[in-house]
Design a protein that fits this description.
10% of the residues lie in helices and 41% in strands. It is mainly β and 625 residues long. The protein has three domains: 3-203, no CATH class; 214-291, Immunoglobulin-like; 302-622, Metal-dependent hydrolases (TIM Barrel, Alpha-Beta Barrel). It has a 15-stranded mixed sheet that branches. The termini are far apart.
Length: 625
């Protein structure tokens, strides 16, 4: 029987529609009712290419996978909604790839959407060695969906988040349920994204036999042969089709299409990403051990973390477990998921904590129209009984214990023009001005921070992802390195954080430390007998260093140029008299990955790393409050 489905090409870059011919031959025809400047190119299973015209039937005469690429003639090409007609032994499918939160996609946005009206249905062949299927969709909160298993059992989808945002995700355990699943969802009125995070083909028509997946078995080790947590990403024709975040000593199994794929393996910014081209036949298996080379050398006593991440318990796109896996794959030592703490603790977030190695900690973002604030290490919700910030601060102090110390952070108090005009919570520096107890602040603009440091406020600056989708904005893409010394636990990490013993960096990564008369970041330096200060700055980056700036009381007092080097050490003697000294570094930004938060002020400043201040001892009349 012939079958037809509707898809929507957004007119940006290119998108690929696949057709599987299992045994004999079939045909497809792609039609649209509107005039379009989008071209179609066909790649046959043998690699030969051919053109096909809109509305013309394409005979598929060879078994295997055919690829139809839609390409916009220019950036201004209009979107086009089209119908796919398939007959005979032809089974169209798409692989939309991972990621579901719209604001976190790079530019341009996803190019191929579903345009089915009413109820949308696709078929997915679930492999035997897959344990979880993650389904994502841009559908309203009240939308109903279900999956039908090979034994015809139906399971209702439990979409999360269950309120707010337009992006939804549902997880279904697949162990012992391999075979053809049908996925069903109510379709919204507009074209919508619908995807399976595991990168499995989503068939628009059910084939008569199992799909011949190829498999890649990946492992990651460091240069000494030690197994590592890692992120494994799979690309086909330059498009990300799937990723896995796996713990050390656990092989990563990628179910892939026959043909040529590229596997990319990473472990955060401290190690160089490795890529391998893999060519596999139908049903083939490739064992792929990857060794990752360290390119950023850290020092003992430092740990790194991210203080602002969201899961599907608020307005994020993933489960806490997926976020923990992503954080460890990115090389973080600790992370805070800042949703409501009770659901996170009920979920069992604590079970991923490993003494002295990794902390998975709960938090909460208190969000009003005027201000957003994060409670770090919250064990119960804050702000339910009062809308007064002073009461929130008291609640945080009340629930803090030696075992689980808490803190509160002011979120993104300034933003780039445009966003700050629309949303008052991007104009919230007044909170720091009115509440002296506030110590932590994230994702701000340098001039406003410098102004308050000059007023004597010990405001510790942090750089966070504020991540809602780990696909393109994983935990730690912006991160904080904290000096804890010989002992790493909740207490030492929070103490170091509140004392400002930390610096911040973002991808592609830099190490930046500063001492003033041997006092480290967050400490107070005492001038020598001559009233002088010896400042030492060390910077190592993964990209050529353009410059490192030394800042005193908000003014750049010296600049050292990297001249293409990856390392820079600088020393200078300064006359005392300033309140504080800090440093920031800049590198060549060409070729960096974009992300959904590129407009925040620290990103816009162009710097890759900056330190918190080293304070300078002054007379009693000017002590820091």
């Amino acid at each position: 029987m012939p079958a037809e489905s509707m898809l929507h090409f957004t007119g940006r870059e290119s998108a690929t529609l696949f057709v599987w011919v299992p045994e004999t031959e079939g045909s497809v025809k792609i039609e649209t009712n509107s005039e379009t400047h989008v071209t179609q190119t066909v790649q046959k299973p043998n690699g030969e290419e051919a053109d096909v015209l809109w509305g013309r039937s394409l005979k598929l005469t060879a078994p295997g996978i055919w690829e139809i690429t839609l390409t916009a003639s220019d950036d201004s090409a209009d979107p086009v909604t089209f119908t796919i007609h398939a007959e005979g032994d032809a089974y169209p499918f798409v692989i939309p790839g991972p990621g579901i939160v719209p604001s976190h996609f790079p530019i341009p946005k996803p190019t191929l959407l579903f345009a089915t009206k009413g109820e949308a249905t696709v078929w997915v062949d679930v492999p035997e060695d897959l344990s979880l299927l993650t389904i994502g969709a841009w559908v309203p909160v009240q939308s109903k969906g279900f999956v039908q298993l090979p034994d015809e059992t139906q399971l209702q989808l439990s979409w999360k988040p269950d309120q707010g945002s337009s992006s939804r995700v549902a997880e279904v355990e697949t162990q012992g349920r391999s075979g053809w699943w049908s996925l069903h969802t109510e379709a919204p009125s507009n074209p919508f994204r619908w995807t399976v995070w595991e990168g499995l083909p989503m068939f628009l028509r059910r084939p008569p036999k199992r799909f011949p997946y190829a498999r890649i078995l990946c492992t990651a080790t460091d240069e000494e042969g030690k197994s590592m947590d890692a992120r494994f990403r799979l690309f086909r024709n330059g498009k990300l089709t799937m990723f896995r975040d796996e713990f050390a000593n656990t092989p990563c199994i990628l179910h892939v299409l026959p043909g040529i794929s590229v596997v990319q393996v990473s472990h955060g910014m401290e190690f160089e990403r490795a890529s391998e081209v893999v060519s596999l036949a139908q049903g083939g298996t490739k064992v792929l051990p990857i060794c990752l080379r360290r390119i950023l050398h850290t020092e003992p006593g430092w740990v790194c973390g991210d203080h602002h991440i969201h899961s599907y318990f608020e307005d994020g796109g993933e489960s806490p477990e997926k976020i923990v896996r992503a954080a460890r794959a990115e090389g973080l030592d600790y992370m805070f998921i800042t949703d409501e703490p009770e659901p996170l603790l009920d979920y069992g977030l604590d079970r991923w904590c490993e003494a002295g190695k990794f902390l998975a900690l709960p938090g909460q973002e208190i969000a009003t129209e005027k201000v957003h604030m994060n409670v770090l290490n919250a064990r119960r919700s804050v702000g339910k009984a009062s809308s007064e910030i002073g009461d929130w601060l008291k609640e945080v102090r009340t629930q803090s214990t030696p075992e689980h110390p808490t803190a509160i952070m002011l979120n993104h108090p300034s933003h780039m023009s445009g966003a700050e005009e629309r949303y008052a919570y991007f104009r919230s520096w007044w909170v720091a001005d009115e509440h002296d107890q506030l110590v932590l602040v994230e994702n701000y603009d340098f001039p406003s921070w410098f102004e308050r440091l000059n007023q004597g406020r010990k405001l510790v600056g942090l750089w966070t992802t504020d991540g809602h989708d780990i696909t393109f904005l994983p935990p730690g893409k912006k991160r904080t390195y904290v000096f804890v010394g010989d002992e790493f636990d909740e207490r030492t990490m929070m103490e170091a954080l509140l004392q400002g013993r930390c610096f911040n960096t973002r991808y592609p990564g830099a190490w930046l430390t500063l001492t003033v008369n041997e006092a480290m970041i967050g400490e107070t330096a005492r001038p020598d007998e001559e009233g002088m200060l010896m400042v030492v700055v060390n910077c190592e980056a993964t990209q050529p260093i353009e410059s490192v700036e030394l800042i005193a009381d908000g003014q750049v007092v010296d600049v050292w140029h990297g001249e293409g080097s990856l390392r820079l050490t600088a020393k200078i003697r300064l006359q005392s008299g300033m309140r504080w000294v800090s440093a920031r570094a800049f590198v060549d930004e060409r070729g960096w990955e974009a992300d959904g938060h590129s407009m925040e002020p620290l990103m816009a400043s162009g710097c890759i790393a900056f330190t918190n201040p080293v304070w300078v001892e002054r007379d009693q009349a000017s002590t820091v409050r």
